[in-house]
Each structure stands twice: as structure tokens, then as C-alpha cells.
Amino acid sequence: MDFALDFEQQALVNSLEEFCRRELYPHEAVVEELRYVPDEIKQEIRRKSLEAGFDGMNLPEEWGGPGLDKQTKMQAERVMGKPSTALGQCMNRGVTGILFKCRDEQIEEYLLPSIRGERKNAFALTEPGAGSDARAIVTRAERQGGEWVINGVKQFISGADIADFIILIAVSGTDQTPKGPRKRFTAFLVDKTSPGLRVEPMKSIVTRGYNPTMVYFDNVRVPDSKILGGEGEGFNTANEWLYDGRVALSAHCVGRAERIFDMTKEWAGSRKAFGRTIGEFQGIGFKIANMAIDIKLGDLMVKEAAWKMDNDLMNRTEASMVNYYCSEMVFRVADNAVQIFGGMGMMEDFPIQRFWRDARIERIWEGTSEIHQDVIAKDLLRPYRN
Q1: Distances (CA, A) of 386 to 317, 321, 376, 377
Q2: Which of 148, 220, 361, 379 could bond to 206 as cystine, CB 3.0-4.6 Å?
Q3: Can you tell me the distance from the alpha carbon of 259 to that of 17, in angstroms, rounded to the nearest whole number?
Q4: Which segments in the chain show pLDDT lower than 50?
């Protein structure tokens, strides 16, 4: 396995890191206080991102993107894990992978405007009674003539407050299988201006500015032309970009951990107690050592996962392994950082408490740690079942 980036790939990653440091980091405190990104900041980041050539970084060549290999893409995602999530979303780095299932007029109405950064989407799967158990969703789409009538509630939908349309997974019928009735799921493209669609904010202690929402569907009507990827193919359509999402989250966790670690090393190396720097005490020094090892292992797991995706060798078990390890790792690093900063780690004037809060959600939102452990265990033990 060769994880090394060539000169051009490394130059892209380096320039992206410098861009984040210069154009995103300075706005983090404002977003944290306001809980949203002011329009002038959003537009400034968008404009400068375009000028710097970071537009559509994850797009394939056939859609006007650079066609980055997974290794380069995931190293870019590692860098994008360092700034505030809300500010990172201001850069048009591509589109949700599921949108490449757009066909016919959907391409002009949804895919191309999303590629150009003119329209944003939110992905709506989770419900009050269906989180980890996605097949428990009850939001229903019922056919009436040439239309579908949608009723239900979605919860924890990130970015629906600033989205132009919703990618919705709903129950569209029931199939009879040898194991009994089974729900049929379909993906729909639903404009946020649709009558009967309502978005309400939820107050979260994490990722301020990139806010979760409740999305209500009350007799929302959409035509057949709004089905994405085929009726009854909702989960298959979404699962095709599952590995990308899990490895990208893992890369984000590595990047966030690196930023936390850099700040913590500086603090431990300069803060003094009892006549010497606190890093000289084993109680602190051992934490620094363990943080470095944790980050190193996470980085290697992401690089291996990217290599496997580039070579079509990735599987569900390993996607869950890297997601589980890196999401747990970033919280361990953040928690150790708070301990090393002591009381100052809890003060809002210091960003450590924000990193600590934001790190906590990583163990939940791309599949909980418990779900990933369950997937790993079941896959490994499957050959031994009767």
C-alpha cells in the first residue's frame, strides 16, 4: 500500500489548510456566539473559495470537478475537519453523492445548481422513533393519481434551515417477502417551498451554526418526477455513498484531533506549575503521548480505508471500524485536552470547550458507536452461525 500523495496532491491539501486557517478560523468565535453564519461572512467565504479553486472538490471529472482519487479527497476532508462545521459548509466543495442519481429534468433542476453552489440540500432520514433503526421510519408517501402525498416528521436534520430542497426517505408501500411484509422505501426530492412543508430549529450544544432541525410534512404533494433513483430503491440509493460518508467523517475526526492536539501541546509546553512546565509531569506527559498515538492510528486507518476504496476493496465491516475508532478517538483527545487545560478548558473564551462539545456528536450522527460495534461483531461472527 502506498499512501503518499504526489506533489500536486500535497500542494492542494496544503493550500486548503492555509485557506482554512486564514479565511475560516477567524470567524469561529462569531458563529459560536450567534449560532448562525452571517450572510456577509458566508458570501465572502464562498467568493474566496471560488477564487482559490476549491469549488466542487469532490466532484468527478464528468461533472466538471477535479476527479480526485479517494486518498486525496480524504486528506482534503481531514483538513476540513479542523474549522467550524458551519463555516466549512460555506465552501461549495461538491454535492451529496446521492444527487448523482438525478435523471432527466432533475439534473437541471437539482444536480447542476447544487454543483454550482446555487442550491443546497438537506438529507432527511432520521425520525423521532427511528434513528439507528432506520427501517422503523413511518413518514409515508402515498400515491394519489400522478402525485405522491407525504405525511410525517423528520428529526435532527442538519442544514434544513438553510437548504433549498430536501432529499427525503419515506415509506412508499409494502412488499410481501418470504419473511413477511416489508416496507418499501423511496427517495424524493422535495422543494422547501412546497405547501405543507415546515422546518423548525432545534437548539443544540454542538456544531453551532450548522443546526439540527425538525422537518414536518403535512399532505405535501410531489409528482412522480421527484422520485430520486427509482420507486422502492431509497435505501439502495442512499447506501451507495455510505462508505464515502463514514470514511469522510473519520477523516474529519482526525483533522479535528490534530488541531486540538496542536493547541494542547503548546499549552502543556508553556503553562507552568511548581516551577516547571506541566508537560514535564508524567500525569500530563503520558496524556500527550497517548493523544499522539491515538491520532497516528486514526490517520493510518483513514489512509488505509481510502486506499481500499480506490482499489474497490472496501467493505461494510471496515467502514464501521474506521468510523467507530476515529469518532471515539477524537472525543478521547478532546477530553484529555480539557483535562490538561484545567479550568480554562471549560471557559468560553478558549475554543477547547467547543472542540470537546463538537467531538461528542461524532460518536452519534454517522451511526452510533454501538451500532458500528454491532455491525462489526455480526459480520465477523456470521460464518459461525447455523
Answers
A1: 21, 25, 18, 16
A2: 361
A3: 11
A4: none
